[in-house]
Structure formats: C-alpha cells, structure tokens
Inverse folding.
C-alpha cells in the first residue's frame, strides 16, 4: 500500500497505538510502571496494600497521573498534526484538480456533467435565497413560525410596509406559499411514500432473517459423503479465475485455487488472463508454470481479442472443447481465496437435486478494519449477504449471482444462453435468465471466502457506479423476457417490482431526491417543511437494522447513515446512466486491489519489485509451445498500454457542491430555529465535504 500522509484517524485498525511507557526509578519505593499494557491488571494486583488499605503510595499515584497525562498529550499532538497537515493537503488536491480540469478531465467534460450543472445551479439559487433571507432577518422582517400562512401577509397596512424592498419580499413570500409550496409538498410526499415502502421491504427482510435464525433453517447435506467407505463419486469440476492487470493479487488467488481439496483427475483450473501489460502476463505465466511443475492440472489462457470485458473472457473459456467433460464450474475473481474444503462444502448440494443450478457462498473481508471506508462497506455487504441473499435463497430460491465464489451447473449455464456481454453485470444477467428457465439457487451463509474491499474512495466509487448502472441497463433489456417467461405471476412480480424497481431504482432515486434536493429546498420554502420522523427517526431505525448483521459496527451507525446519503449522488447518477443508456452505463473499470492475503499480511512493494526484476528469468523458464499456454499470442498483437499513473487522492466536485448546498441550507435553518433539521444538514454537509476532499479512504502521499 502507498504511504500515507501522516493523518491518524480514530476509526483505523484495532491496534495498540504507541509504545507502552516504562519508567524506571532508582528509588526503591517504586521500580516499573506500565500504563495500559497487557500486564496492567497484573500490575495492579501485585501492588502491596498498606496497613491503611491504600493500593499505591502517593509517589506511585503521582507517576500514574503523569504518565496518563503524557498519553493524553500525545493524542492531542496527533490531532493537532492532523489539523495542521489538512490545509496543505486540501490545497494540493485542489491544485491537482485544477490541472486535471485544464486538461479536460473535469466533470464538465465527462460523465455526470448534467447532474453537476444541476447541483451548481441549485447552489447558486440557494446562496441568492440565503442572502435575501439574511437581509430580511437583519431588517426584522422575519417571522417566528416557519409555516407562514398567506392571510397573515395581507393584514399588513400600507403604512407598515417599509419601502419597495419590503414589499418585494412580502410578494416573494406570498408567491412561494401559493405556487412553490404545493409542487414541493407533492414531490416530498411521493418520496416519503417510496421511502416508507422501501423501509417496509427492509423490515420484512430482517424479519425473514430472524425467522431463519430462530428456526435454524439452512441448506444441509445428508450425512457425510466424504467419509471412508461412502462410495461417493466425485463429479468433474472446472475452476475459472478471470483476471485483468491484477498484479497485486494473481499469486494468492492461483495458489488458493490450486490447493482446493479435490481429486486431481476430476479437477481443472483455468487462469483466464485478460491483462494488457506484458510484464503482468509473464508473471502470471510463471506462477502457472510453477504449479504445473508440481503436478497441478492448470492451464493459462490469454485472448487475442480482449473484448466484452469479463463476460467475453468467461464466454471464450467455456468454448473450449474439453469443457464438455466437466459437470460444474466454480468461479473466483482474482482477489478471492477459497479455503481448501470449498468444493466439499458446495458440490454435495447438487447431489440428488437436479433443479439446482447455482450454489453461492458469501464473502469475508481481510481488510474490513483498515479505515473508515472499509468499515462502512463491511456494514453494507454483511447486510447484503446475511439478510438479502440468505432470505431470498431460503424463501425464493433466487438471488443475484455475485460474480464469484459460486459453483454453477454447466447445464444451467448452457440452457440459459451462456455468458452475454450486453451489460457490465454479466453475473446478474445470467442469474435472471437462469431463474426464468426454472433453475433454483442455494445460498450458503456459513461458507465464507476471503477477499478484500477497495480501500480508496476512487476505487469504491467506480465499483458502485458499475453496480448501480448495470441493473438498470439489464432491466431495459430483459423486461420483455420476464413478462413472457413461463414462470408464475408472483415470481414475475418479485423480479420486476422488488428485485429491479424497488431495490435498484427507487432506493437511489428517493435517497438523493429526498435528502439532497427536497430537504435543503424546504429550508428556503419553510411552508413545505419535512417532518422530523422522515429525516431522523426512520433513517436511524433503518441504519440500525442494517448494522444488526455486524454488531461490532454499532459505534459507526451515525457515520454509516451520513455516508449512505453521501453515496446517493453517485448511485443516482449511475442509475440514470443505466436506465437511459448514457455513455457511462457500459464502462468497466477493474477495482484496484492492494494484494492483502490476510489481516496480518500484505505483499510489500519491495517483494513485487523483486519479482518484476526476475522477469527475464521467468521468460527463460516458460515453455515455448506446450499445454501450459493454450493461446499463444505474438507480442506485436498485444495492445500497448502505458504504465499505471501514480495514484493520488482527488477532488470530487459534485460532492463538494452538494456540501456547500447543504451547509447553506443549514445556515438558513437557523433563522427558523429548526434544531434537528439544522444538525442533520450540518453533519450531512460535513460528510459531503469529507468525501469531496477524498479524506475518507486510503490517503496517498
């Protein structure tokens, strides 16, 4: 991982900060004192009691206080260092953003520019309205109640009007109460209705999860098929590892796949390398060669024409002649590390159940405590697997395939049309088509596969854009197929109303519209005020439900609520691009990995540089023509790509503009004495500011 900026965050990893302070004195009355160390309790127990029952002498107690004061001073110094480094860090990022804008890389020249223009226009009007309200307040034209009735404006006599400016202000108040209030109220009520429906859906999912745990419902395997003398016939399994320029994680994923416990004659690993960097290709070939020399049945594939992203890669691999000899295919993305018994925990669920087409395992994260961003992602994904996937798997036998850590029956893939490249979410596409063909899915919540979360906000933002634009693009394409499919009406309703519309379209729509548009708008049109339960009570309850699957994250309930609202602008933009088939709806960017293989291990840059220096040796060891490299591509056919540019934190202008908008609305709410509205807008504005300055995830010097 890249070095940080020296900014210490209280939400970082759970490690002991600093070195325990040890004080050794020559005076025999006291020798060693260690504060907050592992031996603290033993130290307290070992202190002799005096005749008067005191645990420490006065001198010992004084030293304890001094050492605690030393630690407190160290914490204050760390916080001071953070605030001292913050202005220069922010200034550097603004300069970098200005340079990028000069080169045509700003939001006005790329995706989301229409939304950015809308936010800027809204911000300009808000600043103008705030200036008007401040001037009115300064002149004593304000009213105590925010819900100002129009008749109260007309009782003023002519002599009470203090000039034409006062008259213009009264006319504006009358106009907004008569004409602007009603459309805002209509839109807010519609969003509140959607908000309530989506909250009920989440509550039903949580009740279903509670019922599953109460009744201990889960997919089970009859007996132990792998015990000695059971006569279990191992089916043939194909393992596919698609990857693309993932230098940080290729080694650990190949190693984990090669260590799966399954008979070698019934087992084949395919490394599907779409890398455009020749040096990474050679590293992956060398790793495959190493395992081949150890007797592992593994092949390396590299496509001549790398089109259609991951779907094209998987489609090309399934077209091999030898695939017809295999019954099942397990798929693992490049940063996933299955345990050796993964196949033994998943394959037996197909036995005696010919209608099952997919067995899906859940994800487990090696870096969930790395920073605040990974902690918040962990909350979302724990709810996704523990609640959504498990409930849908138990009660509906259908859920969206996660693209990895799943085992497919190859017959189900073939009958459903195979991998298609029509969207960036090929996993959801094949899952919907298999469901329409009558195949059932099984979700195993107790089978976990290690992977890593994106540690930088840039990587997470791009990932979320793809995850929220793809479903809407797919919905456009498969709506007619769902309507004409030969499945029950309630399954069609579940797919259209719940799976796509409610959870993929309505959620980002109302989240952005209600909290980022309507709420600040009501501060300048106080006649259309939102209720407190809409902006406070219900969102907090829903956040509490989301955190239940990961109870250790309970202290982060407020940051989680604020961050989810902050991400609504990205999700809303992605949803629109997918729904209306805009340019960014078919954009695929590989999520950046750091190469973490466990919570306590991370490949260092030095080790990777050594491997890069050994490339000439690897090239000599690789066979020229053999079974290892199935598709031998001449060097001149490789697409030349520049080396990765140096990573750096960025400035996100849409988030910064929304931050200024919400802080402006918070300032306006002070004039109406709306306490909860003010605090919500203030904290939400600060949340947008932190994200806009890219201070939430990995900090890169």
């Amino acid at each position: 991982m890249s070095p940080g900026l020296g900014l210490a965050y209280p939400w970082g990893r759970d490690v002991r900060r600093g070195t325990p302070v040890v004080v050794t004195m020559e005076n025999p009355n006291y020798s060693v004192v260690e504060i907050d160390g592992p031996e603290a309790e033993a130290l307290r127990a070992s202190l002799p009691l005096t005749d008067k029952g005191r645990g420490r002498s006065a001198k010992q107690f004084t030293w304890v206080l001094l050492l605690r004061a030393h630690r407190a001073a160290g914490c204050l110094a760390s916080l001071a260092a953070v605030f001292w480094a913050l202005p220069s860090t922010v200034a550097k990022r603004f300069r970098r953003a200005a340079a990028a804008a000069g080169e045509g890389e700003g939001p006005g020249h790329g995706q989301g520019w229409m939304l950015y223009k809308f936010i800027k226009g809204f911000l300009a009007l808000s600043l103008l309205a705030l200036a008007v309200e401040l001037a009115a307040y300064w002149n004593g034209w304000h009213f105590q109640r925010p819900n100002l009735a129009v008749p109260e404006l007309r009782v003023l006599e002519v002599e009470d009007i203090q000039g034409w400016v006062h008259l213009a202000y009264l006319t504006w108040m009358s106009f907004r109460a008569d004409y602007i209030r009603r459309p805002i109220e209509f839109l807010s009520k519609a969003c509140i209705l959607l908000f309530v429906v989506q909250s009920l859906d989440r509550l039903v999912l949580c009740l279903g999860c509670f019922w599953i745990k109460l009744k201990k419902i889960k997919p089970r395997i009859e007996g132990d098929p792998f015990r000695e003398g059971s006569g279990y016939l191992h089916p043939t399994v194909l393992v596919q590892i698609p990857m693309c320029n993932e230098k940080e994680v290729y080694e650990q994923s190949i190693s984990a796949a090669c260590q799966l416990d399954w008979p070698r004659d019934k087992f084949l690993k395919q490394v599907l390398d779409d890398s455009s960097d020749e040096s990474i290709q050679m590293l992956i070939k060398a790793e495959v060669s190493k395992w081949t020399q150890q007797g592992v049945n593994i092949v390396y594939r590299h496509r001549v024409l790398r089109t259609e992203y991951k779907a094209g890669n998987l489609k090309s691999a399934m077209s091999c002649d030898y695939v017809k000899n295999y019954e099942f295919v397990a798929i693992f993305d490049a940063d996933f590390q299955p345990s050796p018994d993964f196949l033994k925990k998943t394959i037996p669920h197909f036995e005696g159940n010919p209608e099952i087409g997919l067995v899906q395992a859940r994800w487990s994260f090696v870096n969930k405590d790395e920073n605040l961003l990974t902690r918040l992602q962990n909350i979302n994904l724990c709810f996704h697997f523990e609640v959504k996937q498990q409930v849908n798997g138990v009660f509906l036998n259908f859920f969206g395939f996660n693209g990895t850590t799943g085992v497919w029956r190859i017959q189900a893939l073939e009958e459903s049309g195979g991998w298609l490249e029509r969207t960036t979410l090929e996993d959801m596409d094949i899952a919907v088509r298999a469901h329409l063909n009558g195949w059932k899915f099984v979700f195993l919540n107790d089978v976990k596969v290690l992977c890593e979360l994106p540690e930088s906000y840039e990587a997470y933002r791009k990932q979320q854009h793809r995850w929220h634009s793809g479903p809407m693009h797919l919905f456009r394409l498969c709506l007619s197929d769902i309507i004409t499919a030969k499945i029950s009406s309630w399954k069609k309703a579940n797919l259209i109303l719940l799976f796509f519309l409610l959870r993929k379209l309505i959620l980002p729509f109302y989240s952005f519209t209600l909290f980022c548009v309507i709420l600040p708008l009501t501060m300048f049109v106080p006649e259309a005020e939102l209720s407190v339960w809409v902006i406070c009570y219900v969102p907090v309850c829903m956040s509490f439900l989301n955190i239940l699957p990961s109870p250790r994250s309970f202290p982060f309930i407020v940051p989680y609520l604020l961050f989810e609202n902050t991400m609504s602008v990205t999700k809303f933009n992605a949803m629109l691009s997918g729904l209306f088939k805009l340019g960014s709806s078919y954009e695929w960017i590989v999520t950046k990995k750091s190469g973490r293989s466990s919570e306590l291990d991370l490949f260092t840059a030095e080790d990777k540089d050594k491997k890069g220096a050994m490339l000439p040796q690897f090239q000599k060891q690789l066979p020229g023509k053999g079974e290892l490299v199935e598709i031998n591509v001449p060097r001149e056919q490789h697409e030349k790509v520049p080396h990765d540019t140096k990573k750096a934190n960025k400035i996100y202008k849409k988030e910064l503009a929304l931050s200024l908008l919400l802080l402006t609305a918070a300032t306006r709410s002070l004039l109406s004495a709306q306490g909860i509205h003010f605090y919500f807008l203030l904290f939400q504005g600060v949340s947008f500011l932190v994200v806009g300055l890219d201070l939430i995830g990995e900090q890169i010097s």
In short: The mean pLDDT is 82. The radius of gyration is 30 Å. The first strand starts at residue 22 and ends at 24. The CA atoms of residues 182 and 528 lie 8 Å apart.
